[in-house]
Amino acid sequence: MKEFLKVNSNDSFVLHALALEYIKIGDDVNARALFESILNHDPAYVGSYYHLAKLLERTGETDKAIKVYQKGMEEAKKAGENHVYNELRSAYEELIL
C-alpha cells in the first residue's frame, strides 16, 4: 500500500484505504490525520466523513463528530450521493438523540 501511495500521494481513494487500515490496527492518530488530510484537499470525497466522524465518536469528541456529520451531509447532498447522505444522517441522528 505504501509503495502505491508513493506514486499516488494525493489519491483520496488510496489515502482513505490506508486510513481504514490504520483503524484496523488501532492507530486512530494516523487514521484521523489521513481522513482530515483527504477532506481538506478533497471535500467532495464523501466516503471519509462517516469514518472520521465515527473515529471522533469513539474517541469521545462528540461535538467534532457532529460537525463532521453535518459537513458530510452537506457535501453528499451537493454531490447527489443520496446513499452516503442517508448513512451520514442516520449516524448523526443516532448520535444526537
How would you explain this protein's 3D organization?
The protein contains six helices and no strands. The chain has a single domain, classed as Tetratricopeptide repeat domain (Serine Threonine Protein Phosphatase 5, Tetratricopeptide repeat). The chain is globular, with a radius of gyration of 13 Å. The longest helix is centred in the last third of the chain and has 18 residues, at 62-79. Helix 4 (47-58) runs parallel beside helix 6 (82-96). Helices cover 80% and strands 0% of the residues. The chain is mostly helical and 97 residues long.
Q: What would you say the CATH architecture is?
A: Alpha Horseshoe
Q: Strand pairing plus helix content: what structural class?
A: mainly alpha
Shape: globular
Characterize the largest beta sheet: strand count, sense, and whether it forms a barrel: none
Gyration radius, in Å: 13 Å
CATH-defined superfamily: Tetratricopeptide repeat domain
Main traits of this protein?
single chain; 6 helices; 80% helix; mainly alpha; globular; 97 residues; Serine Threonine Protein Phosphatase 5, Tetratricopeptide repeat
List the helices and strands and how they pair.
Layout: H1 2-7, H2 12-24, H3 28-41, H4 47-58, H5 62-79, H6 82-96
Helix pairs in contact: 2-3, 3-4, 4-5, 4-6, 5-6
Compact overview of the structure:
Helix content is 80%, strand content 0%.
